[in-house]
Amino acid sequence: MKQYNVAILGATGAVGQQMLQCLEEQEFPIANLKLLASARSAGKRVSFAGEDVVVEEARDEAFDGVDIVLGAAENDIAKRFVPVAREKGCVTVDNSSAYRLDPDVPLVVPEVNPEDVARHNGIIANPNCATIIALVAVNPLHKVGGIKRMIVSTYQAASGAGIGGLRELEAQMAAIGAGQPVGDPKAFAYQLACNLIPQIGGFDAAGYTSEEMKLQNEGRKIMHLPELRVNCTCVRVPVMRSHSESITLEFEREVSVEAAREALAAAPGVKLVDDPANLAYPMPLDTTDQDLIYVGRVREDISAAPGSHGLALWCCGDQIRKGAATNAVQIAKLLVAQG
Amino acid sequence: MKQYNVAILGATGAVGQQMLQCLEEQEFPIANLKLLASARSAGKRVSFAGEDVVVEEARDEAFDGVDIVLGAAENDIAKRFVPVAREKGCVTVDNSSAYRLDPDVPLVVPEVNPEDVARHNGIIANPNCATIIALVAVNPLHKVGGIKRMIVSTYQAASGAGIGGLRELEAQMAAIGAGQPVGDPKAFAYQLACNLIPQIGGFDAAGYTSEEMKLQNEGRKIMHLPELRVNCTCVRVPVMRSHSESITLEFEREVSVEAAREALAAAPGVKLVDDPANLAYPMPLDTTDQDLIYVGRVREDISAAPGSHGLALWCCGDQIRKGAATNAVQIAKLLVAQG
User: Fold this and answer.
1) B330 and B282 within one domain
2) Would you write out chain A's pLDDT as a tens digit for each of its 339 residues?
3) Strand pairing class (B242-251; B147-155)
4) Residues B28 and B140 in one domain
5) d(Cα A6, Cα A268) in Å, to the nearest integer?
6) Is A216 on the interface with B (CB under 8 A)?
7) In A122-135, which positions are buried (b, 16+ CB within 10 angstroms) versus exposed (e)?
């Protein structure tokens, strides 16, 4: 089997570290692995498949000889290095939002549009975490009934703000638990423990945040539904690393609850957890540190207008894994499978 | 000014204790105050307006001579004692769900349908907490555009499960903060700290919980809109005592964002907190232990079908105060004002 030289750009962050673990778990065919990060992290040793790998500073020369780059860095770092990597012949699977809406760049959720990987031009974008989680849950139902509209309220975990977000929530809970004052927030604009923050990203003129608009903009591109209408409210909640979403769907054609459950039970990447009588439904604690999207609370939308077709559901997924690292490694595996 | 003999039924619970505080804050004209609870709590001393009041066991005779009963007990206790109180000539403002949908019993949010108090027959019901909070926010917009449909996702605080719910969440956070194991949950079906539980109340055959159906059933009655369609997803979140709700509204007529903000700014019981540029929006920490419903994130529903009229908003309110005790005391004040 052919083996590949792989680099992780932003290897020391929450997503980069998870990518490393996913590469190992998914037995990715690696010849040589480079871990790239800021100068500050250079020299650190990280364990991979039983060996120590030394973190290198990300510089242009670092991409020489690399086949596949997994990008786990912020937009500014991605914009700085991804074009360099492309010039040097690497293919980058990039988790930043810098290239997601570029018409020249496929945006891929392997369970939804794996075929788009083939038309890459050196860059494939990894979608927003809340978008990936929603689409893995919703696409099987779209295939049954044709989705027209989604109304989504998210319950997003601290890990969306990286390791700093996780540490801050932990420290706040410890302070509250010990009866100590909660210090000034840094990773978030406000205290997150015992609170909810209805803002993720900056606001546009219409009053939507950048995170809220991703679900419509990226959803349209991934599902090849340019007319899809999405109204999203994104809320940060005091949960560690799994996002949850309350989703109301409007379909072109009728989708019964039974047909929806069947489609979800058979769908790749989905675990149907929907047995109300036994108090079984998705919860973010249960989806922590695994790759499946749990979907449940599937029911008819009783508010749908007569003659229209609606369903409501609730889903949870690990934000660092399927929301970021796992999805990127799955894309890299599709690349390898396609040669 | 005439003074009234008042009893609180269920005086030692979270809502009962808050009723006591609201009576004092709102300078309710009290001649004599009785605090009624289970035999287990009888004999406890509670401070009210600088004096100690001894808790009595709730028995039929306890209602003799009482004018107004504030009911803060569960359904079974309410069903046991509210009819007795009515026979003895008391008027009960009851916070349980036992009488809310009884056609003979007004269900009142003073900011929405104060006129319904007058047609009471010895019982006035206090609505569900999430319903009160949503309707205070939504009614001013209904007056502008006529509401047809609401799609609601709730973020409900631990206090909805009473003092036991609050203590359990505190204990779980302390355990997590100290690196100790989180014990078995009792107040909730699952661990709430760092988690979300998408179930409040029991499930019906269609897959909705009792809490979810309250918003439609009680909302229709309070707003006198028998055709109102509501699709609700109720989720317990690790927040202490303020509920938050993400609400998408469909109107008969156009309601601009500007008109909506004007209506909300002028509405009783509402504080408009909607200045995204300065990161001002409602958060449950900020609405803790006060009586206003904070409303913000007001924006056009960009997923509304062409020709239809939609808005999205986010609101927060203290579940124990306006969601229960404050609303009940406000109803009692309307009773007094109407003689």
Assistant:
1) no
2) 899 999 999 999 999 999 999 999 999 999 999 999 999 999 999 999 889 999 999 999 999 999 999 999 999 999 999 999 999 999 999 999 999 999 999 999 999 999 999 999 999 999 999 999 999 999 999 999 999 999 999 999 999 999 999 999 999 999 998 899 999 999 999 999 999 999 999 999 999 999 999 999 999 999 999 999 999 999 999 999 999 999 999 999 999 999 999 999 999 999 999 999 999 999 999 999 999 999 999 999 999 999 999 999 999 999 999 999 999 999 999 999 987
3) antiparallel
4) no
5) 26
6) yes
7) bbbbbbbbbbbbbb
C-alpha separations of B286 from A84, A197, B155, B301 in Å: 47, 11, 15, 26
For residues A184 and A300, membership in a common domain is answered with: yes
Of A153, A177, A208, the CB nearest to B246: A153
Angle CA(A96)–CA(A322)–CA(A156) in degrees, nearest 5?
75
SS3 content of chain A, % helix, strand, coil (to 5): 35, 25, 40
Q: Are residues A112 and A149 in the same domain?
A: no
Check: complex ipTM more than 0.85:
yes
Question: Which residues of B are known catalytic residues?
Answer: 129, 243
Say if residue B189 is in the same domain as residue B299.
Answer: yes
- Put simply, whether A160 touches B (Cβ < 8 Å) is no
What's at A135, amino acid-wise?
L
Tokens 């595996």 correspond to: A333
Assign residue A32 the CATH number of its domain: 3.40.50.720
Q: Total domain count for chain A? A: 2
Cα of A283 to nearest chain B Cα, Å: 6
Clarify whether A129 is annotated catalytic: yes
Residue from B252, B260, B258, B263 nearest B309 by CA: B252
A224 is catalytic: no
Instruction: Give the position of tokens 């920490």.
Output: B285
> A310 is written with which tokens?
């609606």
A243: Cβ–Cβ under 8 A, 6 or more apart, which residues?
A129, A130, A133, A154, A155, A156, A157, A160, A284, A316, A317, A319, A323
| Sheet arrangement for strand B4-9 | B45-48, B51-57, B30-37, B4-9, B68-71, B91-94, B123-125
Residues 176-215 of B with CB under 8 A from A: 176-178, 189-191, 193-199, 203, 206-208
Burial category of B164 from C-beta neighbours within 10 Å (exposed 0-12, middle 13-18, buried 19 and up): middle
Q: Which of A177, A246, A283 sits opposite B173 (nearest CB)?
A: A177
Q: Are A168 and A192 in contact (CB under 8 A)?
A: yes
Helix (H, G, I), strand (E, B) or coil at A223: helix
Residue ranges of the annotated binding site of A for NADP(+) are: 12-15, 40-41, 159-160, 319
Question: What b/e string do you get for B251-269 counting C-beta neighbours within 10 Å, with b at 16 or more?
Answer: beeebebeebbebbeebeb
Q: How far apart are CA A239 and CA A285, in angstroms?
A: 8
Task: Check A90, A129, A232, A315 and give the catalytic one.
Answer: A129
CATH number of the domain encompassing residue B165: 3.30.360.10
- Distance in angstroms (rounded) separating the CA atoms of residues A6 and B288: 51
